[in-house]
Write a structure and sequence with these properties.
Number of domains: 2
CATH superfamily of the largest domain: Vaccinia Virus protein VP39
Order of helices and strands: EHEHEHEHEHEEEHHEHHEHHHH
Helix content: 25-40%
CATH class of the largest domain: Alpha Beta
CATH topology of the largest domain: Rossmann fold
Strand content: 5-15%
Radius of gyration: 20 Å
Number of strands: 10
Distance between the termini: 23 Å
Length: 378
Amino acid sequence: MKTGCTIVDLYCGCGGFTLGAELAGFRSLAAIDIDPVLQSSYRLNFPRTKAIQGNVADIDIATWRHFLGTNRPDGVIGGPPCQGFSRIGKRRKDDPRNSQVHHFFRHVNLLSPKFFVMENVEGLLDAENVNVLQSGIELVAKRYHICSPTIVNAADFGAATNRHRVVVIGYDPERMDAVSVGDIATLPSGERSTVRDAIADLPSPIPDLKKPSDFGWSEYPEVDVAGLSEYAVRLRCSPPAGLGWDEAITKLQSGIVSGLFSTMHSVAVAKRYAETPPGRSEPISRSQKLAWNGLSPTLRAGTGRDKGAFQAVRPLHPEEGRVITVREAARIQGFPDWFVFHPTKWHSFRMIGNSVSPFVSYAILHYLNAKLAVPLAA
């Protein structure tokens, strides 16, 4: 794995895409997001990255010169807002967020990286939306070889959730070795994880005392470490140097993890949840009850205050009559235990639901890192 390579993350959110890149050997120079709440988590977990709060559409070459100087990233990554393309909810062709796909490719031209990776929902490839993608690609097609858009599932990369997303990769053939869709298709290990692998070792929920700066810390239960799943061992590890919030790292080394606040349910609701069979949806809330030996459905983000502050339906715990905790959701998505989100559960679930699974981003960026390290043929 080559080190010293760099990326810029557009539409960074809490940083799932960046995390995979950093673990794959890249250094994140800068990250942009318009939502200060989502980016609050990014700033804690990536303290050496320049986190820029702003609208990607408003950033020009002068802004990049201000933040990056003469540096140019090896790669540009990002997941433009996808609500206008989503197959659930209201789909609007005139959704202003749709134009962000264009701006992603505009920044590829401005920054001239060796490669780029864009992630979005499957609906981007639907007949009524694909022209948005095609017009963006046309902005960079003269310089970059564009791989055919590929649909990936986070479950194929080891995450305990079915999460299908479109990935578009482009590279400059004069500055790195060839990238192929066929290679991307072989990246998944083929080994599926389960909900049990992901969350069985985590602490039970604790009361939410609504303290403004409390992240819901709790101790791991006493377990035989030798009996932990490979999934749990992987996500209990401390971060590499340069990543993570000092407080979270210190607590993790003492066996304390964040994101354990409970969600209060009435007795009647808790009873309904408890009686719902695993793998089935509770008919009133429509929350799906997880099965220990199965996968989670796609974790949804809900909306911010500017779009009505709607909370997404959360899966139910496989045994207990409750929705899952923030930490359980983070584990299912592939976030390590040192990664912190927000003191408010609603914001934390938005962060996780909006994120690229770090398992997916690591696999793709690790592959691209190797392509940068291969000398070009004379």
